[in-house]
Design brief:
- The protein has about 130 residues and is mainly α.
- It has two domains: about 45 residues, no CATH class; about 60 residues, Orthogonal Bundle (c-terminal domain of poly(a) binding protein), CATH 1.10.1900.
- The chain is about 65% helix and about 0% strand.
- The N and C termini lie far apart (about 70 Å).
């Protein structure tokens, strides 16, 4: 019976992990055990943060819309309630972009949903 050399697959697996750990600091980039731990950990963080990114952007859009609403004398909750009642199909991402890049267009949306913008309201500084 011929001799079977068994290093090929483990070498391939090790090489794959070391390649994935490229750019890591210290032993994490070239020692298999620590590199394997680091790659597994980074994969978990990446999985978690792909979901957190959606939450963070939604929070940002809501904050921007709220600031734009307050600058014309209304609140976010009143605006969203009016938007829902009027069956307007604009999502928060689009509304946020509109509030920052085209304030006149945002005022048109307010008028469309039945809110009259108060231009004498105290201006709230918007952070872009």
């Amino acid at each position: 019976m011929p001799r079977v050399k068994r290093g090929i697959m483990s070498h391939k697996r090790h090489k794959k992990i070391i390649k994935a750990a490229k750019g890591y600091f210290g032993g994490k980039k070239n020692l298999f055990k620590t590199a394997n731990e680091a790659v597994q950990r980074s994969g978990n963080f990446a999985y978690r943060d792909r979901r957190n990114k959606k939450r963070e952007f939604r929070k940002l859009w809501i904050t921007r819309i709220s600031a734009a609403c307050r600058s014309v004398g209304t609140t976010y909750s009143v605006f969203i309630a009016a938007l829902t009642r009027s069956s307007t199909e604009l999502d928060r991402k689009v509304l946020s972009d509109l509030a920052i890049r085209d304030p006149q267009g945002f005022n048109q949306v307010l008028i469309t949903v039945g809110i009259t913008p108060d231009m004498n309201a105290p201006v709230v500084e918007m952070l872009a």
